[in-house]
Every structure is written in structure tokens, then in C-alpha cells.
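Hi team,

Filling in the usual template for the complex we talked about on Friday. All components are listed, including any nucleic acid strands or ligand strings, so the model treats them as one assembly.

SUBMITTER: L.P.
PURPOSE: interface mapping
COMPONENTS: two
RESIDUES: 459
SEQUENCES:
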Amino acid sequence: MINVEKLHKSFGDTEVLHDINTSIERGEVVTIIGPSGSGKSTFLRCLNLLEQPTSGRVFVNDEDITNPNVNILNIRQQIGMVFQHFHLFPHMNVLENLTYAPMTVKGESKAEAKRKAEQLLAKVGLSEKLEAFPNSLSGGQKQRVAIARALAMEPNLMLFDEPTSALDPEMVKEVLDVIKDLAHSGMTMAVVTHEMGFAKEVADRIIFMDEGRIVEESDPKPFFEKPNTERAQSFLEKVL
Amino acid sequence: MNLDFSQIVPYIPFMLEGVWVTLQFVIIAIIFGFILGSLISLVKISRFTLLKWLADFYTSIFRGTPLILQLLLIYYAVPQLTGYDISPFLSAILTFGLNSSAYVSEIIRAGIQAVDKGQREAAEALGIPYRPMMIKIILPQAMKNILPALMNEFITLTKESALVSVISYLDLMRRAQVVSSDIYRSFEPLIFVGLLYYAMVMVLTLIGKYVERRMRASD
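RESULT (copied from the run log):
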């Protein structure tokens, strides 16, 4: 579903991604972990071109999205993204947040978009917040709405950029539960996270990054029991 | 103390008329400046490097030179260079409109760029095209930053409009000078038009406060 070849990204003189090669299969849940500043988020953002790679290629469903002739808006419709800081549209209520893009981008009727929004809100446990504005929601509720907003576009792939890092500790679980449900439903996902328990539990594969490189890539079980590289060992010692 | 407000009484209708004369060109200049300023701000947030540079240059010229100089240049230079005998009214609209557009373009640009970058990314990630993103997502949020600053600009323009008295346009300020040379008294007519300016600015301030309250209500 996703193929990344020789991906490099620099901001000015600083190289933040160095020769990234990997792929994500359909239905696979990949979690990307590593210390702060290791390039995890930048890598994720290259997958829907929120960051433009400096060189290398990214294929989504065999289409090279780094090709300037590609209609990136079409590609992005198939890729949902959830941000650390939610980024709900504050001047729209929850229903409008969920229906605006499907109506504007995919031309769905209002009734259709609303019906779907109601289903999605039920799925994330927020049916009663349909008319609420983002400012009146807690962090965990905002993030669940943000997940529903991304799902409203019916994407094939979901990207999560540290979805629980900005939350109060007691709200982390409600968001992780929603993401787990989604993983179990067969959604293809790439999750950048610091939640090791979550990574261990839901990931099909772990990508461990440091200093802009993929240092280790393996199944979660061996990775958490005995990582191959020293860098991953010392990282896990600090966070577990 | 030598004060006699009764002497200006016969001139009150003449001075009151100045309120309307001033308002006339101020309103037109505000509208002209707002439309032009909005267009320039669009250039400033665009990707066209050359146009952006021109827009920045335009802004720096109008913000970097005295308003009275701009007014006199347009009033005297246009006839001398083109042979077109420009009226004080037209010079005033042109000067204040062009000048205001420079400030308005900065206000709108700053207001748009102050909107959280994440809003734009969220819209892009959903595949929303540029135009609906700007109109439905970015601008409504930018308005909160823009409107209060815009009201300030309109208030400034209303007060600075008194400068047109130097090109003998019979605005409110000029009328005070005419009256004082008629009755050989400056203090009374100046105080009188001062109150009128103050009243106009107060009305604008109240409108501004009302708009700001409405904006905050949607939070």
C-alpha cells in the first residue's frame, strides 16, 4: 500500500531523514517509535506530503506521490491524519467538523454526510456531542472527534502523529481504545507514539528510528524482549 | 478670560455641513482602501515572488513617507505631469485610499498568518482545496484578529482626514479655519469641530466594540 524508497528530508542544512526505505502492507498496523527529534513525525508527514521530501520516492497504491504531476488532493482524500494537537476547526461544531470535508471534497449530500457522522460519533462514543463546539470538549473528546473527522473521508490508510502526547494522563486510555478498535477492524495504520504498551499490544511491526534513520525494524515481541541494536536497547531501558 | 461661544452660533450649520463633507470622502476612501488592501494582502500570502516583492515595496512606500507629502504630491504632481486638473475631492480619496490600502493589506496578511498553522494542515490532510480552505476555514478564524485592527485603521483615517484642509478642500477642519478668519477667533471654532471629530470617532469605537463582542460570542 505504501512504499518508501531512499527518502531524504532536510530543513536547510539539517538532515532530518536519511535514506529511509520501508513499506506498509494493506491491513498492517505499524508503530514508529524513537527518541524526540529522531524524525518520526517528519517521516509520517512525508507520507501525505505535508512535508515535501528533499529526495527519494513515496508510492501510495503504486502511485508515486512525489511526482509533481500527481493530484495530491486526491491522494490525501485516501489518507486520514490525526494530529497531536487535534486541529479541530474551532468555528464549526462537531457535526460540521465531520461533514465539511466529505461534502466539499467528495460532494456528499448533507443528509448522507450527517448520517455517516452520527455513526462515526457513536463509534467513538460521543453521540451526545453532535452540536457541541470544540472549545467545550476535553482533550480526549477532541481527539476522538478528530479521529472521527478523518474517518468521515473513508480513508484506506490512517496516520497518527503522537495522538495521545498532548492529553492529560487520564484521557489517554479513551483515545487509545478508539485507535485499538480501529486497528482490529483491519484499517491500515501508521502510528507515531511514545506509548510502548500500546505499541506492543496492537502493532504488527515496530519501526525504531534515531537521528533520521531507521535503526531497527521488527515484530513487536522480539523487539521489546531483546532488541538487536544497542541504540534500541538503551532507548527501551529508559522508557520502559 | 476672553471666551465667547455665541460668536460661532451663526456658523454652526456651516460647520455641521463639514461633518458630511468629511464623512463622504472618508467613507469612499475606507471602501477603496479596504478593497485594494484585501487584494494586496492576497498577493502577499501567495507564492508569486515578484508580485509579493512589489506588494511589500508598495506598502513600505506608503508607510514610510508622511501622509501630507503623499497628499500634496498627488494634488500638485498629477496636474503638472499629466495635465489633468485633479479636484481636491479626488486627490483626497486617492491619497487616503492608497495609503489606507497599505495598512489594511498588512492587517489582513498578519491576521491570516496568525491563524494556527495546524488548521491549514488539517484542511490539507483532508484533501480540501485551497479556495474553500481559505474561505471557510482560515478566513473566519482570521476575522477575529483582523476586525479590531481594521476598526483602529478606520478611526485613524477619520482623524487624519483633517489633513485635506491643506489642499483647501472644505472639510470639517478647513471650515473651522474659515470661521476663525471670519470672526478673528480660533479657540471656539476649533473646540467645536474638535468635539465633532471626537463624536465621530466615538461612534466608530462603539461599532468596533460591538463587532468585537459579537466575534467573542462565537468562541
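MY TAKE: Chain A has a mean pLDDT of 93. The interface with chain B takes residues 48, 50, 73-77, 79-81, 83, 85, 87-91, 100-101, 104-105, 135, 149-150, 153 of chain A (CB under 8 Å).

Thanks, L.
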